[in-house]
Design goal:
Blueprint lengths: L3 E2 L2 H21 L5 E7 L3 H16 L3 E7 L5 H13 L5 E4 L9 H5 L13 H8 L8 H12 L8 E5 L6 H10 L3 E5 L6 H5 L4 E4 L17 E4 L3 E3 L2 E3 L12 E2 L6 H13 L4
Parallel strand pairs: 1-11, 2-3, 2-4, 5-6, 5-7, 7-8, 8-11
Antiparallel strand pairs: 9-10
Helix pairs in contact: 1-9, 6-7, 6-9
Bound molecules: NADP nicotinamide-adenine-dinucleotide phosphate.
NADP nicotinamide-adenine-dinucleotide phosphate binds next to helix 9.
Length: 276
Amino acid sequence: MKTLLMKGKPVADAYREIISAKIAAARAKGVKVTLAIIVVGDDPASHVYKDRLVKLVESLGGEAKVLELPETATQDEVIAMIKRLNHNRYVTGILPMMPMPKHIDGDAVGAVITTSKDVDCLNPKSVGEVFLGRSRWAPCTPRACMATLAHYGIELKGKNVVVVGRSNVVGKPVALLLLQEHATVTVCHSKTKDLAGILKTADVIVAAVGVPAFIKPEMVKKGVVIVDVGINAVAGGLVGDVDPAVADKAGAFTPVPGGIGVVSNMMVMDMLSRNL
Ligand code: NAP
């Protein structure tokens, strides 16, 4: 059996073509696409992510407006900034980098982003829309999982899908999106009993655990489709939540790096161009 390597780049490239054409058509009519990125403090990962997004949005013909606040900024200051951006008609998307410094409640910040500019589904109203089956505003990483599965022609209807992880940003929303595609979904977490037994029943596994190489070959059945959301920094570089040895048993799998992460960033751009 040949294993299908579900790389992120071809998925992102397909979206790139559509998004840049939309942005170019809008520009021709005098409409600009501008992503406001808010970074509070000096978290290195946030700055790396911000730089990547700036490059990406510019490469698609859009613009980025980076707003940096010091680590000492208050929650009220961040919220006031977002409220101003909500009313700024030149700003089409708003993305605050998470996590915020400890004294700032990221949920409270996300909740003030107006839904039409909420590119990563941080406002509870956007989350509610996803719950009701209107996936238009789902967060970027779950949408990246779905886009990847669709791109590689993975059938979900009636399939047993096991999601490992129940975070608000990945596990829970991806479970809802899978349900909308008529999969039978099981969500596992740190208190799940007999995880290996449940994983053995899975036709598709979505791993969003945050533990390097957590899912081992003996935990999965032959031919399983693996979507590895995990991005874990280890001594040798970046690894996913699934042991690379699982690839030998899998029917299809996403690599780390070069898998879901690549598509996630493009999903931010997809959201940004949604209203064009
Ligand atoms: P998170 O908020 O830390 O959630 C991790 C989830 O895994 C929790 O629900 C937790 O269960 C569960 N878990 C932890 N240990 C477990 C165990 N031993 N057995 C079963 N379940 C366990 O993480 P996250 O934000 O969802 O991110 C997950 C991974 O995806 C991370 O590696 C992160 O870096 C990566 N990520 C990637 C992208 C991307 O674009 N590719 C985007 C976001 C995140 P409890 O709820 O019981 O604690």
